[in-house]
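Collaborator request, handled under Task 6.
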Amino acid sequence: MNKLKLFAVLLGLSFIPKMNAQVGIGIEIGPEPNCPYGYYDTVPYACAPYGYYGPEWFAGGVFIGVGRWFHGPRNFHGHINGNLHPEHGYKGSFPERGEKPVAHSEKFKGNERISGVKGHAAAHGGAHKK
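C-alpha cells returned to the collaborator:
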C-alpha cells in the first residue's frame, strides 16, 4: 500500500506546471536624501524631525549623513533622541525632502548614541540595540 501512495504522489507531482524561479539582487544607492535635519538610517530613509540628531551630526549646518551615505570619521558615534523615531511611537510632524532648515531655540535632548557608519544604537547605559 505504501508503494501505491508513493506512486500516486509522484504521479500527481508530474502534473504540476514547471515554473522558472528568478532571483535578483539589486543595489541602488542613489543620491543622499536632501533633508534639513538629517534622515533616518532605515528604508525608506524618511526625513528626521528637528532634534532627532544632536549637533555633532552637523558640520557647518550640513548633516554628515548616516549609514550608506555617511561621510564622517569611521569611528564616529553621535547622540540622537530616540523618542523622535516612528518605531518608538513618534507621531509628530516631519519635514519634507528639500525643505530649508528652520532655526529652533530648544536644546537637544539625546538619549541614545549611534554609529554613523552602521547605525547601531546604544542607550546611555551602554546596552546595544538595533
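The cover message to the collaborator said: "Strands lie at 58-59, 62-63, 77-80, 112-115, 121-123, 128-129. Residues 7 and 13 are 10 Å apart (CA to CA). Please let us know whether this matches your experimental observations."
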